[in-house]
Design brief:
Layout (H helix, E strand, L loop, with lengths): L6 E15 L4 E10 L2 E9 L7 H25 L3 E4 L4 E2 L8 H9 L1
Parallel strand pairs: 1-4, 1-5
Antiparallel strand pairs: 1-2, 2-3
């Protein structure tokens, strides 16, 4: 589009609570996607599978977060808008560390 030199910026935040539901042993995921600092998408849900650790819960949350961001980004691009994804996702807890059980679980499938 001629004259459209404005760039939209998508960013996001997430949080998760490991084994929040004591009856089902499932964790909670919360994700917010922002467009130029304004919240555009919010999701809070119980994770579908039981996580084996806090790290696995955070990884599941990160996947949901990235899916939401890509969805919003693709909508903007489909309208012909210039859009940029933030490369620094604000995930409350670090995903690094011991995740070998997650790798084993994934390879098993």
């Amino acid at each position: 589009m001629e004259g459209m030199d404005f760039e939209f910026k998508f960013s996001s935040k997430s949080d998760s609570d490991y084994v929040k539901h004591k009856d089902s042993s499932k964790s909670i995921t919360e994700c917010v996607t922002y467009l130029n600092g304004a919240p555009t998408m919010y999701q809070a849900s119980t994770q579908e599978m039981i996580s084996l650790s806090v790290k696995e819960t955070e990884m599941n949350t990160a996947v949901t977060l990235i899916q939401d961001m890509l969805f919003a980004y693709e909508i903007a691009k489909s309208f012909g808008l210039e859009a940029k994804l933030s490369t620094k996702e604000a995930i409350e807890n670090s995903i690094g560390g011991q995740t070998c059980h997650v790798e084993f679980k994934t390879n098993f499938l």
